[in-house]
Amino acid sequence: MGCESTKSTNFVIANRYLYTLQLSYYNNQTISIINNSKSIITKIPDTGALFNDSSSPANSALIEHIKHGCANNMGTTTESFDLLITKKLASLWTVKQTIKGEGGYGYIISVPGLNENGKDEKFKLRTSNCFLHGLFKGFLIEIEHLDDEIHQDDNLERNGLIVKFTNSINKIKSLIDLYKFPEGNLCFNVLNETKLDYLSDLCQQYCDALQF
Fold this sequence. Notes:
The model is unreliable at about 1-15 (pLDDT under 50). The chain contains 6 helices and 7 strands; from the N terminus they run βββαααββββααα. By secondary structure, the chain is an alpha+beta fold. The radius of gyration is 22 Å and the shape is globular. β6 (about 120-130) and β7 form a beta hairpin. Its main location: nucleus.
């Protein structure tokens, strides 16, 4: 019988990419993507309103966290989770980009002639001036096809979801051709094809459009 001594080595897989998106029309909310595969959505709450209405379970849980010393915007500290990640833990990331979308306008429009059954198609449009670490990076037009069928059926199987998503992309392309939008990068990648998440996918598309 023989005995062999071995040394154990722990390998830590580094987080390579961190992209964060802050949009002026989502006040105090930050969308973060890690390694183009995971997303975290954080929001600085209005803690004054929380203590005035502590009846909901979500508010009660958050109040308990605040009472135990979590950062909040009531006292001298306003450190948010995204600030902790992007500033104090910056050395964890090989590439770290922070995008801010400011200004712009929002529209909801109905467009005839894009639907074969004669019904109008509805779209939500937003414009945004994008800044990367304070420097102007580009002007983005955000287009969302308002497909009621997708929102009504949360249990669409993967194939059905892909068909609906592809149909929405084609409608957006038709809208761009119809109104002759300026040429640019049309980006519609998502983090997970089987589970669409509006804010996470939006951050992914902003990164693609700005060519990160």
